[in-house]
């Protein structure tokens, strides 16, 4: 029997709006517990939610990028359940009329393109966080994350493997970042994926699925998929039946275990949210979103190649993260030298980041200083070695390039008098070598050149020094 894996994903992403979805509290990550709260988001009786206009705006931006239909008459629904981290004992979400529907995201695996259909994107509020006392004296509630806006992106069951899932998540993450609607920091939980997985005999009807939660890296997601695939195949091959349930992944042990039997929508007693008006989206609003769409990564890649003459392999590196493409665009524009800027970032900057273990999302470096340095090296003020050294000093200590070059004596000695006097003293100190050059032993030139460069220090200009040395040798 040939088995086929079927996977559908529910991805939750926290939006980077300034304030929460239904009140004015900040969405900033962390903070002292219960300092980003107010009566609305901590679920006090008698308070009323007011929709943050930026949330549907961000949702539509994603909807347009994922080729979705925008729902003109959207609305919110109340999903009832009790969790200690949900002070209202219900979550405001969307069930009946989600804001975006019927889209797709195209992924590419080993040169093959595949469209993953998007069933819907809906808006909802996040829950708070339970903090368990490590000494076992109880648990504490932190409501700071309560009501941070979330988008849930629900795919159709179109994936066949972990590779496809990872390719999709990477593309989705890139899209969210370039749309400027989420910081997508997995370690901070701003993007989380639930994996629905079932097994069927190839071509047969869909099998019973499980939903695995609690993976906090792409690697963990891939491992959880492999694990669940094998687990279900084993059950089926033994003649058993898969139980529909929610499972929790334990990354340390590399296994998942059943958490609760799967609820159905009826269990949540959904009903239209009575505290919020329906959301009517008119053409003008949609047109406005469409005409203000930020440039996506693939569009940037195409533009770098077409308009700036950057090689495709470099264009790929320059768009791995929005931070990198922003840096590239700033340096490229300020220096007016896109190729030099591309070389600098894909070469030296990437090398320094790797060595220091800095992720693209955490990179912060002064684009102005890098542009100044590009001007210096291409204008002959410093040589390539001094350039590298100063770039590193800017990267690690944010030094002022001009001061640093002056202090370290890195400016290229292009002053003829200084070079000529260095050549003179080298020839006096090494008169034997100079004489043997004149008798035809030209191989000593390299040695003499080395002596001259040594005298000139780090700022030696090899071209000028070479010319001066040749002239001086021929003169006598
Ligand atoms: P719920 O909201 O109850 O979790 P949905 O029917 O909305 O359920 O589906 C959630 C996700 O599960 C979707 O991404 C969908 O594609 C996927 N899915 C549904 N049925 C299956 C199945 N038999 N096998 C794998 N994935 C499935
Ligand atoms: Mg679900
Ligand atoms: Zn609040």
Radius of gyration over all CA atoms, rounded: 31 Å
The end-to-end span amounts to: 91 Å
Oligomeric grouping of the chains: single chain
Approximate helicity band = 40-55%
Low-confidence runs? none
The molecules bound to the chains, other than polymers, are:
adenosine-5'-diphosphate, magnesium ion, zinc ion
Task: Give the number of helices.
Answer: 15
**Number of DSSP-assigned strands:** 16
The side-by-side strand order for the widest beta sheet comes to 2-6-7-10-1-11-12-13-14
| Tally of structural domains | 3
Report the sheet with the most strands, covering strand number, pairing sense and barrel closure.
Answer: 9 strands, mixed
From the helix content, strand content and strand pairing, which structural class follows?
alpha+beta
Shape: elongated
Rounded mean pLDDT score: 93
Give the amount of beta strand, in percent.
Answer: 15-25%
Describe this structure in words.
The chain is an alpha+beta fold and 476 residues long. The protein folds into 3 domains: 14-194 and 265-285, no CATH class; 295-408, no CATH class; 416-475, Orthogonal Bundle (Arc Repressor Mutant, subunit A). It contains 15 helices and 16 strands. The protein has helices at residues 54-65, 162-178, 218-237, 283-291, 297-308, 312-318, 322-335, 338-356, 367-378, 384-397, 401-407, 416-429, 431-438, 445-456, 462-475; strands spanning 3-14, 69-70, 73-74, 77-80, 90-93, 100-109, 112-125, 129-132, 139-142, 149-155, 191-201, 210-213, 245-250, 255-261, 271-272, 279-280. The strands form 4 sheets. The chain has a 9-stranded mixed sheet. It has a 3-stranded antiparallel sheet with strand order 5-4-15, with no helix packed on it. A hairpin with an 8-residue loop joins strand 11 and strand 12 (210-213). The longest helix is centred in the middle third of the chain and has 20 residues, at 218-237. It is elongated. It binds adenosine-5'-diphosphate, magnesium ion (MG) and zinc ion. Adenosine-5'-diphosphate binds at residues 6-10, 154-157, 196-198, 206-207, 209, 211.
